[in-house]
Specification:
The chain is of the alpha/beta class. The protein is 24% helix and 22% strand. It has helices spanning 96-99, 113-122, 139-151, 166-172, 188-195, 200-212, 231-244, 270-282, 296-299; strands spanning 6-7, 11-13, 19-21, 29-30, 41-43, 48-50, 55-56, 58-63, 77-82, 109-110, 127-130, 155-160, 178-182, 216-223, 251-255, 288-291, 301-302, 309-314, 317-321, 352-354. The strands form 5 sheets. It has a 9-stranded mixed β-sheet with strand order 16-15-14-13-12-11-9-8-20. The longest helix has 14 residues, at 231-244. The radius of gyration is 20 Å and the shape is globular.
């Protein structure tokens, strides 16, 4: 038997005796003792098991804007954690030391769902985030944590590439209060060659979240020079978002830096991000941001009706809060889309690593 395992239910046996994992569209077909591409789901005793339940690569308290989520309780803190592995193979991965890990000693910290919920409450975090690597692959652990957090009145936030099959997707988003989906590009060629996956399942996830759930949705696209930053592609992507998801889904264009297996590309110029933001706004999107750069205009939330600056940010720091108590523009009374409290949180931009045993 494998260590730290829990049994799962999204799999079936093939005629040749192998077991197919049905969690994500990759559909890994495994013999006993083999692991899927994600590395953390394995075939053991003719069933698919999760091998990293209750184990994490570390914990940190972050601003919610770092996820990035700009319209979900701005200014509040979130207890962030991840595990190891990933079900995509992105050549540009910015968290490759975690998502590409094949070493169980990466998972230095152990935590039950109940411990995590109590810790988030003790640290006065408004939310807990499944991040650093994709929670799709630790589906059972994430759901148990989310359920435990509900009992502590803690929100559950996911940061995901959205590469998941329909049945587990429906189960997962019953428990998730907010998500940022990484829409990595808008061509099948990019998805296949650069990430080892496919575009259409991600688009289906985006439509499902927006049209079938109450989960607050934001989207991030990391713009890589020469790969997914052309005007035509940004036009097509933002038109699709407008038509399929609507004007009020926040979109973040984020700057790439050379990492993992893509050191041959330069950092994303600020002007590329600004151009993409302009295209998105021209195509009707109301809330478009730039990330990983210093750009106050691109960090600011504007009223979609009159253009008033509602939330002025500098990176993850809120400099000015100009929403009414019920989340409206003070000038024209238009509602700003999102989840807001009467006042923003005061966590600021700091990042605070946490050792779980010391936080209880």
């Amino acid at each position: 038997m494998l260590d730290n395992i829990v049994t799962t239910r999204y799999w079936h046996q093939l005629d040749d005796g192998r077991i197919q994992c049905d969690l994500c569209p990759r559909a890994c077909k495994l013999n006993n003792g083999q692991r899927g591409l994600c590395f953390v789901r394995a075939c053991d005793n003719d069933q698919i098991v999760l091998t990293t339940y209750g184990r994490s690569s570390g914990f940190c308290v972050d601003p919610i804007e770092k996820k990035p989520l700009n319209h979900f309780f701005p200014g509040t803190s979130v207890l962030s954690f991840g595990t190891a592995g990933c079900n995509l193979a992105c050549k540009f991965c910015q968290n490759w030391d975690i998502s590409k890990s094949r070493q169980m000693d990466t998972l230095a910290d152990a935590a039950s769902p109940e411990q995590l919920a109590i810790t988030a409450n003790k640290l006065q975090c408004r939310s807990i985030a499944f991040t650093y690597n994709d929670p799709v692959i630790f589906h059972e652990y994430a759901i148990d944590v989310a359920q435990a957090c509900k009992e502590q009145n803690i929100n559950s936030v996911a940061v995901s590439a959205g590469y998941v099959c329909a049945e587990p997707r429906a189960e997962f988003y019953q428990y998730i209060d907010a998500v940022n989906i990484d829409l990595k590009a808008f061509t099948e060629d990019f998805y296949y060659k650069i990430t080892g996956s496919h575009l259409e399942p991600v688009l289906e996830t985006l439509k499902y979240i927006k049209q079938e759930t109450d989960t607050w949705l934001e989207i991030t696209t990391l713009l890589i020079p020469g790969e997914n930053d052309s005007r035509d592609e940004i036009e097509s992507m933002t038109q699709w978002i407008m038509e399929q998801l609507g004007a009020n889904v926040p979109l973040h264009f984020s700057a790439f830096h050379p990492d993992w297996k893509m050191h041959d590309k330069p950092r994303t110029p600020l002007q590329t991000l600004k151009n993409a933001r302009s295209i998105a706004i021209m195509n009707g999107l109301n809330y478009v941001y730039t990330g990983n750069v210093h750009d106050e205009e691109g960090d600011t939330t504007f009223c979609d009706n009159c253009g008033e600056a509602l939330i002025v940010r500098d990176w993850y720091q809120i400099k000015n809060w100009n929403l009414t108590e019920d989340g409206r523009c003070p000038s024209c009374q238009s509602q700003c889309s999102g989840k807001f409290e009467q006042r923003p949180g005061n966590w600021g931009a700091k990042r605070q690593p946490v050792r779980l045993q010391n936080s209880l």
